[in-house]
Amino acid sequence: MPSTIALKQRIKSVKSTRQITKAMQLVSASKMKRAQEYAQRSRDYRNAATALMQRLGHLEDTKQEPLFQRRPVKRRLYIVVTSNSGLAGAYNANVLKLLTKVLKEDDKAGIASDVITIGSKAAQFVRRLKDVELASAYHAFGDNPTANDIRPLLNTVLEQFTAAKTDEVHILYTEFKSNLVQEATDLHLLPAQALPLPDGVKPIATFEPSVEAVIEEVVERLIEAQLWQAILESLASEHSMRMIAMKNATDNAKDLIDDYTLELNTARQAAITQELAEITGGAEALNG
Prior knowledge:
This protein is α/β, with parallel strands linked by helices. Helix content is 61%, strand content 13%.
């Protein structure tokens, strides 16, 4: 059994750790609430943008546009969204596990894979992979990302696709479902996938001033909306999973303190009992 001094030091150390995890839990809860509001507020816009992109994919006028061209997939680009730091439960692990799965599928199909990472955790992981090119690495965009933050990423993705350097673009991120449920998601970004239309219905649209002008001004914004929403969903998921992880750590620290306190009291009682036995034995020896 450890000495009482060692047990007191352990209790003091665990209490200090509990204070840190409790503070991190409260901070993450505050950030999660704000990030959740942002993510939920823009979901309808993302869904509308996705639906519009898919409908545009049906039109003959758009099929020859660079952002809508479907090519045999020989090279696929993945955008992977993670965090810069750990202590967020399985947040990073779930996305990286999904990345590993799709890369294995590409390898079996003979498809080359490129990766653009957001967050240092993904960059560190991809650098260790064989036969996977890390095209770009971006720092996580922080708790209050802006449109200007993702503009370089958007420009890179559009340039890669329009120049035929990649045939498909996917984004791997964590979809925020609830405070307790977050799901690693693979979203097809480019080219736009066409929605199935009812039988006998032909897609009709009039473009003003021209197809090229609409594609240039509108479609990029629609892609940006999907990319932006994925980042907001990931941010809400990260704070939620970190809050839960820190709550579990705080609860475990409390249980550990209780166990050490019980062990300390037992050690103290054993020491007192031993002293009493020694005193009683000494008194009997003197009387004898």
